[in-house]
Amino acid sequence: MTSHRWLPLPVAHASLGALTGVALAAGPALVHAATYSTADEVAHRTFKSATAFADVLVAPSPQDAAALAAPGGAPHGALRTIEARQGDTVLGRVIVDSVVGKFELIDYAVALDPAGKVLAVEILTYREGHGSEVRLPAWRNQFVGKSAADPVHIGSDISNISGATLSCTHVTDGVHRLVAWAARHPMAVKVATP
């Protein structure tokens, strides 16, 4: 699923130009936003044998909220997770998050097995004008098999993409933080049965 939106942003030409001393071109600025997938679609594609999916909103502790936050950023809010099950067996989960690319948010999802290893990383919505190459499977597949015990750093463990450096760096850092969080909060492999 791919949808594109061009969102006009109104610009107060006279007042903004007067405040900044910059002459502005006539017409609205445009921000490109492309939605490629949803977290539910990622869960269904990744866990094909699942018989049930449970949407779980996780409120992180203050320590986890700080650990999940981007460096210098505000503490992280609630995490949306989707737990995949086959009968009473947990197959894994998808964690949904957002990071800032250069200026705009990038929504992405990380699918993990019960042991916390990455099964997939998918870009859900990309809003930047450049750097959308982070959507390429060859780049995203570098995360597959990584766990909290593995180094996940741009330039050494994960290749950078020229022209998409900030998007690559911030998505990589985000995946690293989510995998570390998941390792501290493992899933119960079996659900208690009565």
Which SSEs are present, and which pair or pack?
Blueprint: E1 3-9, H1 13-20, E2 29-35, H2 39-46, E3 52-58, H3 62-68, E4 79-86, E5 89-100, E6 105-112, E7 118-126, H4 137-140, H5 165-184
Antiparallel strand pairs: 1-2, 2-7, 3-4, 4-5, 5-6, 6-7
Give a written overview of the molecule.
The chain is globular. The protein contains five helices and seven strands; from the N terminus they run βαβαβαββββαα. A hairpin with a 2-residue loop joins strand 4 (79-86) and strand 5 (89-100). The chain has 194 residues and is α+β, with helices and mostly antiparallel strands.
Main beta sheet strand tally, sense and closure: 7 strands, antiparallel
- Cα-to-Cα separation, first versus last residue: 40 Å
How many beta-strand segments? Answer: 7
Determine the fraction of residues in helical runs and give it as a percent range: 10-25%
- Write down the domain tally: 2
Strand arrangement across the biggest beta sheet? 1-2-7-6-5-4-3
- The percentage of residues in β strands lies in 25-35%
Order of helices and strands: EHEHEHEEEEHH
Q: Briefly note the structural class of the backbone.
A: alpha+beta
Which residue ranges are poorly predicted, with pLDDT under 50 across at least 5 consecutive positions?
A: 2-30
Rg computed from alpha carbons, rounded to a whole number of angstroms: 19 Å
Q: What oligomeric state best describes the polypeptide chains here?
A: single chain
